[in-house]
Design goal:
Strand order of the largest sheet: 1-3-4-5-2-6
Number of helices: 22
Length: 506
């Protein structure tokens, strides 16, 4: 038997009367106001409290002139908000030229429609994917689209994952508690106490909580709403955060690059009414060079809007050169819109073992990679290589393939080839260098008695040889593709004969 709240049957009866007067079925009305049929049924029977947003939507669809909004119970006008507190509206401005992602939006809608009070699906969702793939854009677009359905509004916080300004959970909770109406003196000092107060306040509210750039499960767990109430949590992260799926049952929505058709549409619509004529052929070529990565496409749009027709071939030429491509995929003065800057922040946040794997595999296995290939290139066992590839997939560096193995996330191999070839590890003094004159690895001769190189197909490891950079350059030219050196920085020019160095293991 449905429990009927006092004051609600009148609204439900009025809604049903107005709906039937328009000869509109419950299912049709539900579709047009973006609510579930079951939700509207409970409103009409008095088993569900109507929201201001629902009343406004129904008034618009049924053309009632605001009749339903005026019929709301008095305490529905500001449910759970005392002292005239304003409705929460912390969501940032979404991306202006959002295209595609229709399947992902439909999945988000489906999960939201079954939140507690409607069914039994989880109240927390995670959008995950590689850097620049559009996680935040999708989250903000969807949240702005459905935020009106949450009577008490939207809370938002950027947790700063994979940046130098990673947010503390306690600090985020302090801001949320203030927004929810607590005075500063009433906010507990401890993290667990703040998390408890936060869950208590959300238990009587309907809030959409958006947490962007989550770094870890430990960071986000105190910010998750409790089991009581009708709030929903939407998260984005560059990691899969598998612990949340295992322990809290949070589903993940993995995000890849845009479909080619959507990427072409984005380029053509964003450059419309500007000086450059964006033909389908040009848009397709640019999308291919950007590997359909949204962040890269935004940078290309920036250049095209500032370009003349004669500048376009030069832009395409820069993008076709892997060593200059990342230079072109940036918006001057905004590091958040630079593919290179975003990738560097992502790379520096990786554990050292994963960073090394990105350097080696990104250069030597730019296509499909599996445990056997990784084991051979990294000099580790196949089991260890398998674990390492799983960790790279968890960090969204690699994308699992249906028939086994992995492929690289968009543009990460370009980043490795262009930027990591001469990268030095600050804590070790080790330089990573590539003999760009040969694409193959072959067995190099031992440098001296008692020192041996690895087998064919392995990086060169000369742990005890000392000599000059020039002589090693001559010995390894055309033979060893990958070496690591301590001492003089390795560049694309032949090194001077008097530059002392030592080849060491990676």
């Amino acid at each position: 038997m449905i429990a009927v709240e006092e004051g609600l049957p009148e609204f439900g009866k009025l809604l049903r009367t107005l709906r039937t007067a328009k000869s509109m079925s419950l299912g049709e009305l539900a579709k047009r106001v973006n609510y579930t049929k079951g939700h509207l049924s409970r409103v009409e029977t008095g088993g569900k409290r109507p929201s201001r947003a629902l009343a406004a939507s129904c008034d618009q669809v049924l053309n009632t002139g605001g009749t339903l909004a005026r019929a709301l119970p008095d305490d529905t006008r500001r449910p759970g908000l005392a002292g005239g507190q304003l409705r929460l509206a912390q969501l940032p401005v979404p991306t202006a030229s959002f295209v595609g992602r229709q399947d992902d939006i439909a999945l988000l809608d489906l999960l939201l429609a079954d939140r507690p009070g409607h069914g039994s699906a989880p109240r927390s969702l995670l959008i995950t994917g590689a850097p620049g793939v559009g996680k935040t854009a999708l989250a903000l677009h969807w949240a702005s689209r459905v935020g009106h359905r949450f009577d008490d509004g939207v809370l938002y916080a950027d947790l700063g994952g994979f940046s130098d300004e990673e947010a503390e959970s306690a600090t985020i909770l302090e801001g949320f508690l203030l927004a929810l109406g607590l005075t500063r003196d009433a906010i507990p000092a401890g993290l667990s106490e703040r998390a408890g107060a936060y869950r208590n306040l959300l238990a009587s509210r309907q809030v959409l909580v958006v947490l962007d750039n989550v770094a870890s499960t430990g960071q986000v767990r105190p910010l998750m709403p409790g089991l009581v109430g009708e709030s929903t949590l939407l998260m984005t992260s560059r990691r899969l955060l598998s612990g949340l799926a295992v322990r809290e049952g949070v589903p993940a929505l993995p995000l890849a690059g845009l479909r080619m058709g959507d990427a072409v549409e984005f380029l053509r619509s964003a450059v419309a009414n500007h000086t450059v004529m964006m033909t389908p052929r040009l848009a397709t070529r640019l999308a291919q060079l950007c590997e359909c990565l949204p962040l890269a496409l935004i940078a290309v749009v920036h250049h095209l809007r500032c370009a003349r027709e004669a500048d376009v071939p030069a832009l395409v030429q820069r993008l076709e050169n892997e060593h200059s491509r990342l230079d072109a995929l940036a918006v001057f003065g905004d590091a958040s819109l630079s593919v290179r800057d975003v990738f560097w922040r992502f790379y520096r946040a990786l554990p050292r073992s994963l960073a090394r794997a990105v350097r080696v595999l990104g250069l030597r296995a730019p296509g499909r990679v599996d445990a056997a290939v990784a084991a051979g290139l990294l000099g580790i066992t196949p089991d260890a290589a398998g674990d390492l590839l799983l960790a790279l997939a968890d960090a969204n560096v690699l994308i699992p393939l249906i028939h086994g193995g992995y492929r690289w996330s968009p543009l990460l191999c370009t980043f490795a080839a262009a930027d990591l070839v001469n990268h030095v590890e600050p804590d070790s003094g080790h330089y990573f260098a590539t003999d760009w004159e040969t694409p193959s690895i072959a067995k190099a001769p031992s440098a001296r008695a008692g020192t041996s190189a690895e087998e064919d197909g392995q990086p060169l490891r000369l742990d005890s040889w000392e000599g000059t950079a020039g002589s090693v350059f001559e010995q390894t030219r055309g033979r060893a593709h990958t070496v690591v050196a301590r001492g003089a920085a390795l560049t694309r020019q032949p090194w001077g004969p008097d530059d002392p160095w030592r080849v060491t293991a990676m």
